[in-house]
Amino acid sequence: MGKVQPTSGTLRFGAIVNEHREAAKLTRAQLAGKFPVSPTYIGRIIKGTSRCTRETAQKLDDFLNAGGEIIKAWKNYIEGTDYPFALEDYAEAEKTAVMLRSIQVMYIDGLLQAEPYVRALLPNEKAARSRLMRQSVLSRPTPPTLCAILDESTLRRQVAPSDVMREQLHHLLELSTRRNVVLQIARYSDYQDLNVNASFLLATQEDMRVTGFLETAVGGDTIRSHKLVSQLANTFAILQGRALNAEDSRSFIRRVAEEQ
User: Fold this and answer.
1) How far apart are CA 32 and CA 30, in angstroms?
2) pTM tops 0.85
3) Which InterPro entries does the UniProt record give (predicted)?
4) Any idea what the Cα angle at residue 103 is, between residues 99 and 107, rounded to 5°?
């Protein structure tokens, strides 16, 4: 597997592999010799800069007499996080957040997408399944409050046949009635002097720590800088005040659905 930026999942998996390696009193070179693979590859797995395959995880579990612990970790932290690498760190924060904020300028927010829309938008079954699993955060026993602002173009962008788009719009209407979902539509005129060129997400924890995710043309970046997070939060607050309120947003969505 290629070298990648470490994520919370690959880092946790690598730490577990390293614990078992140390318990077995093997150097990285000695462990690599059992496959054989290069010591560099073992080092990348331990450092979280390579996404380990299931076959390699099974061999590591066998060679290190881990009793299934490495396979379990692989399922939890590698297989169980099918998010694009750019999103994976943010997705971890999203799972435990008490409040989620989102501005979407291209597509419907991933947490609000109906299954047919998901499958029309994403390239394969694995990606679609991952998106749908991610939506379960809104159904936790104590779910976060999601405040989502959708650019009006996201409702009109024809990413699927008309029947799928109508179903997606009705799905938004249904979700917007949930107590923990506040959905607003931003019209083109609402931006005025605001420079919102990309979609972004903010996940707030119970202790008020905030993690952001800013989409880019080639994926996106997880944001933890207080300065950058504050700028995104400020942009969200201004646009939230300008966008249609919840009831008017539902009326707007109904009108667009009738046009489909």
Assistant:
1) 5
2) no
3) Cro/C1-type_HTH, DUF5753, Lambda_DNA-bd_dom_sf
4) 120
Residue 195, φ and ψ in degrees, nearest 5? -100, 85
How many CB atoms sit inside 10 A of residue 178's CB?
14
Contact (Cβ atoms closer than 8 angstroms) between residue 66 and residue 60: yes
What the block records as the tokens of 23 is 């318990």
Nearest Cα to Cα of residue 80 among 136, 2, 30:
136
User: Domains in the chain, start-ordered, CATH in brackets?
Assistant: 8-79 (1.10.260.40), 85-259 (3.30.870)
CB 28 within 8 A of CB 14: no
pLDDT tens sequence across 16-36: 999 999 999 999 999 988 887
For the stretch 126-168, pLDDT in tens is 788 888 999 999 999 999 999 999 999 999 999 889 999 999 9
